[in-house]
Design brief:
Layout lengths: L1 H16 L27 H6 L2 E8 L10 E6 L10 E6 L4 H4 L7 E4 L2 E7 L6 E9 L2 E8 L9 H11 L5
Antiparallel strand pairs: 1-2, 2-3, 3-7, 4-5, 5-6, 6-7
Length: about 170
């Protein structure tokens, strides 16, 4: 009986000795918790709404035959906007950025602490693509357009880029 009592006291000591209470409030670690490769995870519904977009985004599977990575599209919250005012995000994990774009970037912009390359569209100035390479075979691209005023083609992509940058892996 005495041996059993010693064993119970030893176990109780181990269990109670392993906890320490630290005063204060637990806070999350700054930055992305876990970067998702789901393009629809690049914007929350609340972030989309702040950008004038309607969430949730509509996912589209990759189309390997066209070398197109998975994408997500958020429509404009303006019912009269049609395709203008929409945002499309692509998240590639297996296509080099140079294989996706047939042209070289024609500039770059610092948005949200990230250097985004500006790619011209092969089909016209009314479409604007901002892209950031994450690794040799991984990139994120944001695409917006404005058919009525080509000078505003990048407006939604530029507005979304700092928000999306918060969701990119660091």
């Amino acid at each position: 009986m005495k041996g059993r009592h010693v064993a119970l006291v030893a176990v109780a000591g181990l269990v109670s000795g392993c906890t320490t209470t630290i005063p204060g409030t637990a806070l999350p670690v700054p930055g992305p918790i876990a970067a998702s490769t789901d393009p629809c995870a690049l914007l929350t519904d609340a972030e989309a709404a702040q950008l004038g977009l309607r969430g949730p985004g509509a996912p589209k599977a990759a189309e390997p035959q066209y070398r197109t990575p998975p994408s997500c599209t958020w429509s404009s919250s303006n019912p009269d906007a049609s395709y203008d005012g929409a945002l499309q995000a692509f998240y590639s994990t297996d296509i080099p950025i140079g294989s996706y774009y047939s042209t070289q970037p024609n500039g770059q912009e610092q948005l949200g602490g990230v250097t985004w390359q500006v790619y011209p569209s092969a089909i016209g100035d009314f479409i604007c693509d901002l892209a950031v390479q994450l690794s040799p075979n991984s990139f994120v691209a944001l695409s917006s357009q404005d058919l009525a005023d080509t000078s505003k083609a990048c407006a939604i992509a530029e507005k979304a880029a700092p928000v999306v940058a918060k969701h990119l892996p660091r």
